[in-house]
Every structure is written in structure tokens, then in C-alpha cells.
Amino acid sequence: MAGRQTGRHRRPPERQATYREVFAVGEFRALWLAQALSFAGDQLAQVALAVLVYDHTGSALLTALVYTLTYLPPIVGGPVLSGLADLFPRRTLMIVCDVLRAGVLAFMALVAMPIGALSALVFLAVLLGTPFTAARAAILPDVLEGDRYVAGTAINNITHQATQMLGFLAGGAVVAVVGTRQALGLDALTFGVSALILLVGMRRRGAPGRREREPFGLWRGTRDGARLVFGDPVLRALVLFAWLCAFYVVPEGLAAPYAATFGGGAVTVGLLMSAMPTGMVVGAFLFSRFVRPANRLHAMGWMSMLACLPLIGVSVQPPLWAVVLLWALAGGGSAYQLAANAAFVAAVPPSGRGRAFGLAQSGILAGQGVGILVAGAAAQVLGPETVVALAGALGLSVATMLTFGWNQVRGGVIAGMRGRVGPVAVAASGDELSGAGRPAS
Between 3.40.50.2000, 3.30.1050.10, 1.20.1280.260, 1.20.1250.20, what CATH number should domain 20-201+213-425 receive? Predict the structure, then answer.
């Protein structure tokens, strides 16, 4: 009797998806290849723009200001324009954004212009990426189900971080060989090829929601998206976990002055800047491949603490190799974003994914920008080691509070996710809420 009752309530064994299974899905291959091409082209364009602006002006300040334009558009227009992903067919929206960005980059490559006009076009190109990113994030759960979504977004995360690690070095070499304007032309070509891949490799889907015809429909959609996210305790907790990156992104922003404390030059800066992305790649791989689906949400809070705790260790002024190790360990801890992302996707109604992801991503970028800005100002007074340690301590405190709150609602999240997407998907993954890296230009 007892044996039969135990068997009746036994859950099916959890099964983790493999990367081979994910790449067997044709639509995912198209999304991934388009993403990889765009990332590679963006790294090339970033190097080319920096060289182009500095050659024209000789001003480090103007060069830095043009670089910051890659942060502003998603912050300013992200919550509004992301709503387009909930009003129009997402495949169509991505293709249109790619074609428009290809046109803008091609114009920048072909036409000589003053820095003001160049800056305006950089702003426009990045702004067009906002609805594209929201549409790609919103369509991925339709392409991959269950734990395939977990593995698929981990692949996207690894691709992004690996591109960041290698892109600047390769980009510098390419720009040195072909020139700045030719490099911008290559970036335009990657967007054109990306649009073609999506056209051929993705199937048509209808618009997910009713198209707003009121004059301020997108603004109303933004307001509704904020209410959706912050009015739900689960979504609110998950988006706050995503925004925690404002603390552990500080080391990357202070890599140059930190390298100076060791008397190091560009090589030391590159070593420090690559430490956290390297840890993120390793952490995302290990978390998605070796942590059981049902355990990922349980581990999320502890890993968020791990993303901040190692940074406190730099307060004792360890040698360079130890600093690199500590930063890489913090990067590995940030793999908790994989869990936050999948839980967020499962909890958001499909018709509202674009707005919700746009709001979350805009907050991530705003937090990164403000965090680095404040840390840079503080480092002028306190020194980079002290500021990195303080960022780690503050981040750990916030992560601890978020974890206590998360433990109160986690049980309901797991039950809800089982009800919506089955027991296999109770875990997580992360791409758009990763909080790692910077927006593509």
C-alpha cells in the first residue's frame, strides 16, 4: 500500500538538455549565428570608433564621451521602444532593426562627417538595437522549451562573454590592417547578413499582442510594464537580483587605475578586464551543465553573494595573480543570473515579455553606468582597491537581503513554473538579464 502510494506521487526524473540538443533546433541556430555575427561586428566597430574619434580630435575626453553613447540609448529609450516587441511580429521587428542598423553603419563608413553627426548616428544605431534585443529575448522561449531554454541562453551568454574577451584584441588587429571606415563597413555587413539569416532561418509568427493605436500607446505600455514587474513580488525580486550587477561590474570600470597600482600598462589592464568575463564563461558553463534544474533556484541567492564576496578580498592588497583570481571567482558567481532569467521568463505573460525585458535591461545598463561613474569618482579620493572592496561589501549586503526575501517567495515560484512549463524547466538560464558586459553598438 505504502509502496504504491510512493510510486503514485513520484515525480519523473529531471533531465538536463545538452548543447547538442539545443543546436539541433534550426531556429536557435539562426538566432545564435545572427547574435554571434552582430557581437563580432560590434567589437570591431567599438575599436574603429575609438580610433576614428581620437584621430580626428586628439581628445581622450571626446573619445570617452562617444563611447558612453553606447550606454545611453537603451537607458533613455529602452523601456519605451522595447514595447514594440509586444506589438509587432518579433521576427519582422528583428529583421527591420538589422536592416536599419546596417544602413546607418554603412552611411558612417562611406560619408566623412563631423564628430557631432557621427555621435548622433552612433546613438541611433544603438537605439535601434533596443527593440531588437527585446524581441530576441521574448522569442527565445518560443523557440526553446523546458531545459533547452536553460542551455540555449547559457550558450548565448558564453558566446557574448567569449566575444568580449577576444573581440577587442582581434578588432584592434583588423582595424590596423583594413582601416577605421572599412571596419565600420564590415560591421554594417554583419547586420545585413544577420537580417538574411533571420529571414531564412526563423519561421513567421503573429504579433503577440494588440497593436496600440493611441498616440501615447507605447508610453502606456511602458507604464503597464513597470506595473507588471514591480507589482508582482516574484518579478520584483528577480529584477532586483538582475540589477545587483551594478556592484560587481565596478572592477571592470576601474581596471586601468587598478593596473596602475601594480605599475602595469595595457597588458595588465587587459588581464584585469578579461578576468570577470572569463569567470562568467566558466561559471555559466558549469552552472548550466552540472547543476540540476531543480537546484538552480535554490542556489541563486548564495551565488549572488559569491558574485560580490571575493571583491572584498582586494582590501588586503593581494598580488596581481590573486586579484585576477578573485575577480574571476566573482564572475563565476554571477552565473546566478541564469536562474533569475529563466524564472523571470516563466513568470511574465508571453504578451508582456518585450516590455518586461526592456525595463529590466534598461535598469541593468543604468546601474552599470551609474555604478562605474560613482566608483570612478570615489577612486580619485580613496583609491581603486578600496572602492572595489567597498563595492563588494555593499553588494554582499544587498545580495544577502535579496536572498532572505527570495527564500520567502521561492516555493511559490517553483510551483508556478511547474504549472506553466513543466518540471524540467523549473530552473533557469540567463542571457538578457545577465547584467554582464555592455550593450552592443
Answer: 1.20.1250.20
